[in-house]
Amino acid sequence: MNIVRTFKQKIKFDRNEFSGAFGDIGTDLPLVIGMILASGLDSASVLIVFGSMQLLTALIYGIPMPVQPLKAVAMIVITQKIAPGVIYGGGLAIGILMLILTLTGLIDLLAKYIPKVVVRGIQFGLGIQLSLVALKQYVVSDSISGYWLAGVAFIITIILLGNRKYPPAIFIILIGIVYALFVHFNSFDIVKSVSVSLPKFYIPNWTDILTGFLILAIPQIPLSIGNSIIATKQIANDYFPEKKITARKISFTYSIINIINSFFGGIPTCHGSGGMAGHYTFGARTGGSVFIYGLLFLTLGVFFSGSFEQVVKIFPLPILGVILLFEGITLMIFIKDIIDSKKNFFIAILVGLIAAGLPYGYLIGIIVGTIMYYISDKKIKSYFKIK
After folding, report:
1. What's the pLDDT band for 16 if we cut at 50, 70, 90?
2. What crossing angle do the helices spanning 71-80 and 25-39 adopt, rounded to 10°?
3. Is the pLDDT of residue 187 over 70?
4. Contact, 204 vs 88, CB < 8 A?
5. DSSP string across 325-382
6. Read out DSSP for 200-211?
7. pLDDT digit string (tens) for 191-222?
8. Which residues are registered as beta bridge partners of 69?
């Protein structure tokens, strides 16, 4: 009975959780598709493991704490067509590194001494990046019809955002499905290719682990520390202060899911402040949205992996773009709680612009912002004539 009661407290299934379940799909789906196609990954393994990790984190946290593809890793894989073995080896290297940071307590020190103003800057920079991707790549993808579709979805979202009775994602997803049925979707091909698939077990070798560490882990870790751990801790405490979620807990689950992923053909994944913001913005308040989201990917992986490229067209890119845009805007708005301090606002904006605009921007932004916060206090106050 205690297990059932705990499950009901952590996982709820209602219209708001269903709406929130699609709050991060605009970020995840294109990256998952891109990695599968670029590297020839086994789609069943990727989808099933990705969905399973959603279920795991939903049960562990009981809040909308989704799992996302690692963005730096995904970009490298998609642009350089990295071999599957190196992806699994890199994921294992990332998982082990984060586990070391967790068990030694180093992640707690980083979370303690990287100031909130820098975290807000990181979130602002990520929000800029997500919004630009939404506008420049997704909304424009279907020409004039895509603009109209995105415009209708945008207006519906503006009208219904925050409405607990009629959460917006339900309506815009339904509109997208209807659009896809007429423009992109061939249901007969989908039915023909239905089959049952399971993930494939894989043991990364030392060469793949070392190569993955050099190519994938080193560029990813700074972004993970800044956004996946520290910024996610901040946003979790913003939304759910009663949960008292720590950086160490987030870092631990981050490390474990990557270690599991690497042995079952999954892509490297993380938690992320953007993902939580997306789920929450579209209505989620428990782990139910993440659980539903995980079931979606599990269903795709187990039954539809053979026609994955066709099935995902049911979610048109202009619709995903609108969802992604609101996720980005939500992240940028978090800067409002430091706007009353000119010094902090200046640092946060600078960190955000560095993070969004420079190679290795998240690492550079964290370093520059933290140094400015601790040792340039007097100079910045003098510049703004703050008494």
Report:
1. very high
2. 40
3. no
4. yes
5. HHHHHHHHHGGGGGTT-HHHHHHHHHHHHHHHHSTTHHHHHHHHHHHHHHH-HHHHHH
6. PP----HHHHHH
7. 666 778 889 999 999 999 999 998 899 878 88
8. 269
